[in-house]
Amino acid sequence: MELAAICGTHFFKLEHLHYGYWTPDLDIALANLQKAQEQYTDFLLYHIPNGAHTILDVGCGTGHIAKKLVDKGYKVDCVSPSHFLNERVHALLGDKTHIFECLYERLKTSCKYDLILFSESFQYVSIDQSLKNTAELLNAGGHLLICDFFKVESGKNGAIGGGHKLKKFNELITHYPFELIKDIDITPQTAPNHDLFDTTMKDVAAPALEASLDYLSNRYRLMAKFLRWKYKKQIERLYTKYLNGKRTAENFRKYKTYRFFLYKLVPSAVEGKAYPDFVCADTVENNKESALCCAAP
Which is nearest to 1 in space by CA: 40, 59, 44? Predict the structure, then answer.
C-alpha cells in the first residue's frame, strides 16, 4: 500500500488508492483515472445512510475519503496499521480526525460510531474478528458499509488475487446481528480498472524496466549482469504476475465480484449475543487520548 501511494502520487498525480468507478461517458484511459476514483468516492458518500454523524474509516489509506467525509460535516476517526500512510493522513487532516494506529482486529476503544466504513479494506481483515468488533463498536441502529471485491465460486483460482470468498462471508455474517439493507453489484463499473492496469504495465512499466536494464547493460555491463542474476527470480515473478496478459477486466468479472454492502445493526439481537469462537490476537489499547468522535459536542 505504501508503494502504491508513492507511485500514485508522484507518477500519476493520484490522491486515492482505490479503484475507479467507470461510467459509460468516461473513456477508460489513465488520464481519466482520477475522475473515475472521484466518482467511486461520490458513490460511497451518496449511499451513506441518513442519520449517520460519526464514522470510523477502517483502512483509511491516504485519508482522502476521510477528508471528503469531514468536509461534508461528519466526525471521522481512522484506523490503519501503517505509520507511513498515517503520517500522510495527519498531514492532510491534522486534528480534524483521530487515527488509531493498529490493526482493526486489535482496536479497543470506548468510542461508538454510527457507521463503520470498509472501502477496499475488508479483504485485508479477518471476517469473524472484524464483524465481532464492528457489532461492539456501533451505536444502536448503526450501519456497516463494505465496498470491496470478493471471490466467486468459479472452481479455479484466477490470475487476480485478493478478496474473501463471497460464499464464506455470506455464511459467517449470519452469526452476527446485522440486517442487509443494500447489496449493489458494481463489478461492471470497476472491472475496467484491470484493463487499464494491464495496458499500463505492458505499454509503460515493461518498456521502462527493459530500457533501464538495457541502459545498465550498455554503460555498466558487469553491474547489469550481476543485477539480472541477483534478482532473476524477482524479475521473473514480476513478469509472471503482472505481465501475463490475464489481469484483465474479463478475468476480473469471471473470478471476482465487486460489491457494495450496507448492513444495519439490529439492536434487539445485540444483548446477550453469543458470537462464534475464534482465535484472536491480543487486543491493544489505542485510546490514550480521546478520539474525535468520542469528544463531547
Answer: 59
